[in-house]
Amino acid sequence: MPELPDVEQFKKYADSTIMNQQIKDVEFIDKRMIAFSEKAIKKTLKEHQFINSKRIGKFLLLETDDEMHKWLVLHFGMTGELEYFKDKKTPKYARMLIHFKNGYHLSLNDPRLLGKIDLADNPESYQKRKELGVDALDVSEKQFKEILGKKKSRIKPTLMNQHLITGIGNVYADEILFQSKIHPTTNIDALNNKTLGDLYKNMQMVLKTAIKDNADPKKFPDSFLIPNRRTKGKCPNCAGNIKKIKVAGRGTYFCPSCQGNG
DNA sequence: TTTGATGTTGCTAA
DNA sequence: ATTAGCAACATCAA
Ligand SMILES: [Zn+2]
């Protein structure tokens, strides 16, 4: 799940659970997710607390009250999630456990270990260090057109390029292009100004709607592709068959009748 | 049993 | 310089 709306949901979850709770200890059950230094992360967290949070694209950053006010950075890969719990056994795929003095624990679960745990001095410097583009919910229409206007590549992989605009992944890219009636392999230089404007507005609409619905596809509007995004799925717009192709190595679902055949 | 799944990176080749 | 294809990472389900 972890694309922009999912990570925003994790942010809401963190805000409502772990904020201002004193940390007793940190335990790494699998160290392969650590991007930099286990020792540094432990030192930053132990005997401190989280006091603020920020999402940049698919990254969740949690500010601590240590001397440097360093931020714990979490990336969720394809299968990462947060779980805050008290009286139950450790989740099966727990990779990092943060133990709080109130008896609760925050687990970072990630079966496939594709996520990352890192430290940042602050969100802005981290965004720069990782060469992330502007967040998909912060970009203006003018900026969006400028960024895409420099590209001739195919629209779907470009929307997913985290160095240009950050936050959109494989599933939401399909949804945004479906709402915009644009075929995923359309070259950007074939899109006119009005189409790019529609694409921008649909991007905002899709992401904001998903966040409002807690990134839960079951709650998404009937007009959305995502709940029908599978082989043998039906287009919510024309009831035609959803087609699956590969674009940039990723499974891509679209409606040939509404989005054209490329 | 083989393939693909919400991601990213690095290499290779036009 | 730009774009595209593929493999790699680890685990599960179809
Ligand atoms: Zn359709």
Quantity of strands, as a count:
12
Strand order of the largest sheet: 1-6-7-5
Tell me about the largest β-sheet.
Answer: 4 strands, antiparallel
Number of helices: 8
Order of helices and strands: HEHEEEEEEEHEHHEHHEEH
CATH architecture of the largest domain: Alpha-Beta Barrel
The proportion of residues forming helix, as a percent range, comes to 25-40%
Structural class: alpha+beta
Which kinds of small molecule does this entry bind, naming each only once? zinc ion
How confident is the prediction overall: mean pLDDT? 97
Say what the CATH topology of the largest domain is: N-terminal domain of MutM-like DNA repair proteins
Structural domain tally: 2
**CA-atom Rg in angstroms:** 20 Å
The CATH superfamily of the largest domain is identified as MutM-like, N-terminal
User: What sort of overall outline do the alpha carbons produce when their principal axes are compared?
Assistant: globular
How would you characterize this protein structure?
The protein is α+β, with helices and mostly antiparallel strands and 262 residues long. The chain has two domains: 4-129, N-terminal domain of MutM-like DNA repair proteins (Alpha-Beta Barrel), CATH 3.20.190.10; 134-259, Helicase, Ruva Protein, domain 3. Helices cover 29% and strands 23% of the residues. It is built from eight helices and twelve strands. Strands 1-6-7-5 form a four-stranded antiparallel beta sheet, with helices on one face. Helix 1 (4-15) packs parallel to helix 7. The protein is globular and about 55 Å long. The protein starts with a helix and ends with a helix. Bound molecules: zinc ion. Zinc ion is lined by residues 235, 237-238, 240, 255, 257-258. The chain binds a DNA duplex (14 and 14 nucleotides) through helix 6.
